[in-house]
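TA notes, week 10

Several of you asked for a full example with nothing omitted. So below is the full record: structure tokens for the whole chain, then the designed sequence directly under it. When grading your own attempts, check the secondary structure regions first.
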């Protein structure tokens, strides 16, 4: 199950966190994605991609700007940039 929590989005299996995207606040309207983790047993199944999708849905709904210092998140944003920009233009 994917959950947005304070400063992070997590993936849980049987109430155990098996994946996590951390994004501490820089200020009231800006977060920095600093870390993406998926348990080795679940890697390659698209869990990190889905966690970032959930996180960006939350950011969009709450008008939160995003910075990325996490290399995985930087690459993910680069690959989804066109879709993310289209969503912003539509809102």
């Amino acid at each position: 199950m994917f959950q947005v929590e304070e400063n992070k989005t997590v993936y849980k299996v049987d109430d155990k966190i098996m994946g996590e995207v951390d994004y501490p606040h820089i200020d009231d309207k800006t977060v920095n994605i600093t870390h993406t983790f998926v348990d080795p047993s679940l890697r390659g199944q698209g869990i990190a991609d889905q966690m970032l999708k959930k996180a960006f849905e939350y950011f969009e709904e709450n008008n939160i700007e995003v910075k990325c210092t996490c290399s995985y998140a930087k690459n993910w944003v680069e690959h989804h940039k066109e879709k993310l920009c289209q969503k912003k233009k539509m809102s």
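The helical segments are 47-61, 71-90. Use that as a sanity check on your answer.
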